[in-house]
Amino acid sequence: MSVTAPAGFEAAGVAAGLKSTGKPDVAVVVNRGPRKVGAAVFTSNRAKANPIIWSQQAVADRVVEAVVLNSGGANCFTGTFGFQTTHQTAERAAELLDISAGDVLVCSTGLIGTGDEVFRERVLAGTTQAIAELSADGGEAAAQAIMTTDTVAKTAVVSRDGWTIGGMAKGAGMLAPGLATMLVVITTDAVLEPLEADAALRQATGQTFDRLDSDGCMSTNDQVTLLANGASDVVPDIQDFAAALTELCQDLSVKLQGDAEGASHDITIEVRSAASESEAVEVGRSVARNNLFKAAVFGNDPNWGRVLAAIGTTTAQFDPYDVDVWMNGVRVCSGGAPDRPREEVDLTPRATHVVIDLKVGEATATILTNDLTHDYVHENSAYAS
User: Fold this and answer.
1) Which tens digits make up the pLDDT trace of 35-55?
2) How far apart are CA 312 and CA 329, in angstroms?
3) What's the pTM value of the predicted model, to 2 decimals?
4) From the candidates 181, 208, 366, 369, which is the catalytic residue?
């Protein structure tokens, strides 16, 4: 049931005409529980969409009662008119739910520059319709309504002793740190204090969504929201909650990776024995963003030289002539020199596991990425049409 798995949440997804396909494109998630705790993290892109600007202001008091989301238009770089559209969307939801507009977050996804009068009319009408259809079984419909180039809806649930976390996500391209071109709503019926919710969310996203780097492109509309309503009346150990939240976010991250635009390989880059976690992340990300490496994987070519060339561009501590590299279980490079024959590496499976041993410390980090394919280029060249 996605975001409606925890007690005290309702959701809906409806078709408002924003998508030319006629598929659902407006979703609403509402907290009906006794507590209205909210936390959110946003894209670090300096170019921010109007819903991001609004939501950053609205969540500042850490009180959130509802989230309105639309696909079929990003409402980004649409001027003051676009910001007024976001404001009116929050006001429409607030009026219908009898809450404050300042407690409504708004999210949009789709083509940048989309947000004219017709867009406004359809978003507002969709918000009205979705609120009329809210139910405790509406999580799946909401997850479908936020899809853009996604091929499947992405949901996850994690349950512990007496409390539950549910989540939905969308995203299939522009997956890079600063979140991704993704919208995520996470709900829980656990009892959390506002600062606890914020800290747990930042910890979880830092270890999951921020380590998903499909194509190195950062979106203008990224937002991950956590709503906690205390409906279970259970106060979890905060570290247990943070671990469960990280588990759920990792589940969603893997699903986002698996649905990346045009991808034929899901690549896990595991960096071992780094001097620090941040350096391990830097090394892994350098490979994830290397188009030569990604193209080689697409061609089922275990070109480990491209791995070493990529990590050599980082500031991380290591000796390039004392690095080991494994590809799908075969050590192809040892001490910066060839090891096992390339013919032993089988890259035909979709799952591709790369291990890089820097041999300088004890820190590790894992980055998720995909290969670079003809289909990715085609899909993004035709996106606007």
Assistant:
1) 999 999 999 899 999 999 999
2) 23
3) 0.92
4) 181
Whether 364 is a known active-site residue: answer: no
Q: Are 370 and 265 in contact (CB under 8 A)?
A: yes
Phi, psi of 356 (to 5 degrees): -120, 115
* Calpha distance 297→18 (Å, rounded): 37
Joined tokens for residue 91: 């006001």
pLDDT in tens, 208-239: 999 998 877 788 999 999 999 999 999 999 99
Q: Which residues contact 240 (CB under 8 A, 6 or more apart)?
A: 160
